[in-house]
Design goal:
The protein has about 425 residues and is of the alpha+beta class. It has two domains: about 210 residues, Sandwich (Immunoglobulin-like); about 200 residues, Oxidoreductase, molybdopterin-binding domain (Sulfite Oxidase, Chain A, domain 2, Alpha-Beta Complex). Helix content is about 15%, strand content about 25%. It is built from six helices and 21 strands. Strands 3-1-12-7-8 form a five-stranded mixed beta sheet. Strands 4, 5, 9, 10 and 11 form a five-stranded antiparallel beta sheet that branches. The protein has a five-stranded mixed beta sheet with strand order 14-21-20-16-17, with no helix packed on it.
Length: about 425
């Protein structure tokens, strides 16, 4: 199963090329072998964390089953590996989960009704489900780590907007920031905290879903490894903002971010970037035969207008000192359309009232922001020699990768450089 997404990607792109009249000859075998080899080092044991690679970038089925997400969880031991008895004791089951929503002790917001375990007003799972009857939302989102150029998985996330719970505390004044954290082994040193400005929590930017207390993924209850019973999900953000095993939300008058990730020199306010990456680049092809390339793009806050590729002989490749390759002869690739099947979802269809989809279950716009898209490129036959392959995204503002945010520690943006041979 770890290799299945790569087989699906290869088959989808193979069908595309065959419809275009391109005969692969021996290229297909090389591409397929390389694609499958990308996942050969995936751990097989169920309890072993699946480290990020390109296995989160799938074409069909588009949404990643919970068991196939890659994992970058923190904790010693990892909270999702605790025994079921221990999970019940610490509130990591739907029957025992509670969420406290309180004022910050050091920088207090003024609230009228704090929600605490001590006074019996903490939110439990049954109350969350009552809120869900009126306020539940669901939306697609790729889960990505800030400093890794590969997705953890694509999901359809369902939950209740965080603001609906915050309003229940009757906030009155001095509320500027919300920070939150989950269960981490009753060890203060292990707490992983994220934060958001209250303005983002209460109001959604244009065509952006709300921040949610998430309890379902792909229509199924959120499992423990994915952060269940309840986690935060922030649509436009990297994974560190979507805290797992949520236990506390703190309302604060603090004027700045206080995320744990900031302590490691990370840009904690950087939203998802748009970038392109390859999945299939044949390591060796025959001269004067068509060569098929394919890959995916993460569609960030600035959207995606096109994918471009650059193929040059190693002996005469563009000299570039700033990583932008502005003077190179980039060529447009073809973006694949929206998926035609959603196999990870019940009934193979996107549920009604899913954010970003119309009444028939089709995306209103494609590519969709905060999701993956896929691309293909067919190169006419090349003379024998050694070559370099690169790909890049052009966002909806016309800005080419790695711009407009090329900096490390604020999301992946670098352009790949992959060597291949024509013989």
């Amino acid at each position: 199963m770890n290799n299945e997404f790569l087989r699906e990607h290869f088959e989808a792109t193979r069908r595309h090329f065959l419809k275009s009249g391109i005969v692969f000859s021996g290229v297909a075998a090389h591409a397929s072998h390389q694609a499958l080899s990308l996942a050969d080092n995936s751990p097989s044991e169920a309890k072993t964390p699946r480290r990020p690679d390109k296995a989160g970038a799938r074409t069909e089925p588009y949404f990643t089953p919970q068991t196939e997400f890659r994992d970058v969880s923190r904790g010693n031991p990892l909270p999702h590996t605790l025994s079921e008895e221990k999970k019940r004791q610490v509130g990591m089951t739907r029957e025992t989960w509670k969420l406290e929503v309180i004022a910050d002790v050091e920088h207090p917001a003024t609230i009228g009704s704090p929600m605490t375990a001590a006074n019996g007003t903490a939110l439990d799972f049954d109350e969350l489900m009552k809120l869900a009857e009126v306020h539940a939302v669901q939306f697609p989102k790729v889960m990505t780590c800030l400093n890794l150029g590969c997705p953890l998985g694509m999901g359809l996330w369902q939950g209740v907007p965080l603001r609906e719970v915050i309003w229940r505390t009757k906030p009155k004044a001095n509320l500027r920031r919300v920070f939150y954290f989950g269960y981490h082994n009753d060890d203060p040193k292990q707490i992983f905290r994220s934060s958001l400005p209250i303005g983002r929590v209460l109001e959604d930017p244009f065509e952006t879903p709300p921040i949610i207390l998430c309890y379902k993924l792909n229509g199924q209850w959120l499992d423990s490894e994915r952060g269940g019973p309840v986690r935060m999900v922030v649509p436009e953000a990297y994974g560190f903002k979507s805290i797992k095993w949520l236990t506390h939300v703190v309302l604060s008058n603090l004027p700045h971010a206080n995320d744990t990730y900031a302590e490691q020199n990370n840009d904690v306010d950087s939203p998802l970037k748009t970038f392109a990456a390859s999945l299939v680049v044949p390591k060796e092809s025959r001269s004067n035969m068509p060569i098929a390339f394919s890959g995916y793009a993460q569609v960030g806050v600035s959207g995606l207008s096109k994918i471009q590729v650059l193929i040059e002989p190693v002996s005469s490749m563009t000299k570039d000192e700033d990583g932008l390759f502005k003077s190179a002869l980039w060529m447009d690739a073809e973006l694949l359309g929206a998926p035609t099947k959603w196999n990870a979802l019940e009934g193979g269809a996107v549920p009604k009232d899913t954010f970003g989809f119309d009444a028939t279950g089709k995306p209103i716009r494609w590519p969709m922001r905060f999701c993956n898209a896929h691309w293909v490129y067919a190169q006419a036959g090349l003379p024998a020699g050694d070559y370099i392959f690169r790909c890049r995204s052009i966002d909806a503002n016309g800005v080419a990768q790695p711009m407009p945010r090329p900096f490390r520690k604020s999301g992946f943006a670098a352009i790949e450089s992959i060597e291949f041979k024509v013989s």
